Amino acid sequence: MRNIYLDNSATTRVCRAAAEKAMEIMTDNYGNPSSLHSMGLRAEHAVNEARKTIAASLSVQPEEIIFTSGGTEGNNTAVFGAAHALRRRGNRIVTTAIEHSSVLEAMQQLEKEGFEVIYLMPDETGCIHREELRKAITKDTILVSIMAVNNELGSIQPLDGVRRILTAAGSPALFHVDAVQAYMKMPLRPQKYGIDLLTVSGHKIHAPKGVGALYIRKGTRILPLHFGGMQEKKLRPGTEAVPLIAAMGEAVRCYDKQEYTSIQALNLLFRQKLQEVDGILFNSDENCLPYIINISLPGLRSETLLHFLAERQIFVSSGSACAKGHKSHVLQAMRYDPRRTDSAIRISFSDENIAEDADIIVNNLKIAVSTLARS
Fold first, then answer.
1. Where are the alpha helices (DSSP H) in the chain?
2. Active site residues
3. For the whole model, what pTM was predicted?
4. What is the pLDDT of residue 322?
5. pLDDT digits (tens, 9 = 90+) for 303-313
6. Residue 78: which residues within 8 A CB-CB, separation 6 or more?
7. Is pLDDT at 375 greater than 80 in this prediction?
8. Rounded distance, CA 122 to CA 100, Å?
């Protein structure tokens, strides 16, 4: 039986073109991009070509892109870098209660340093209301950090209008967006939304793990987390991971721009089929990004369901992979009943999934409902 991999929001299979590009860099074009000889220049060229590709995918300038090790480092660089750079102009930070842990835990650390952090709560669809954001932002607000798409639900957050709210409040705040789950899956134009800092990651889009990028709007000043070299404008010093960077550029180049339509159709099919499962509840509403469906089967624990399906070569998630099985802070923030929260699983798609996968997972969920003991 083939694997039914439905955990693509955790990570994706590396596409062949990206893997081949990484191998080429590791075994042929393996110079240090800071070296001044011809092999170093060739490696530098590979980095610059990837930078241009990623910049073009966001309609920004190549010099506005720095490379990181992934979403967590990108989010930490943006959040700490912005807060520390603007500390003299205010002390207030606004974020949401449903951010990825790499943002939430950074915020908790900033609170220990004396910053005031406001956590906006979502509605029943997992979205933040603009009016709540408007109330939270004051002239002392120095940073607003809101994810583009929630990694557990797929709920799309209202990024448009944030810049206008900041301007109206007379706030000097930088606007950061964690776009890890949104990148290449929906239009992202930082300039359109007045975004100053935007985080993306490679392994969600068929590039290898260990590489990502941070958009920093021209003229934006943040402080570095690391020291020790001139690379990446001294914001991310150290020898660049050229094989991973070049592979990410290749994955972006090869990404199917028409994929959204097919994923949308697959999401609809899954929703129709999943309704056949007794007691199922949908935590992701129909306005969520179609790459994610979060469901609950109250009375059946998430971990039990996950292992039951994995034994049948069906791979899903019980929430964010970074949470390591802990209860979903996203569903708790939505004030869901504990039985619903404890039974949530996330199904997430890529272009490798097919219609047949819907029948297979639904049939196995029906078996689970009829055979597993409910708590």
1. 16-27, 38-58, 71-85, 101-112, 130-136, 162-169, 190-193, 242-254, 259-274, 302-310, 329-333, 338-342, 356-371
2. 322
3. 0.95
4. 54
5. 999 999 999 99
6. 145, 176, 197, 199, 214, 222
7. no
8. 14
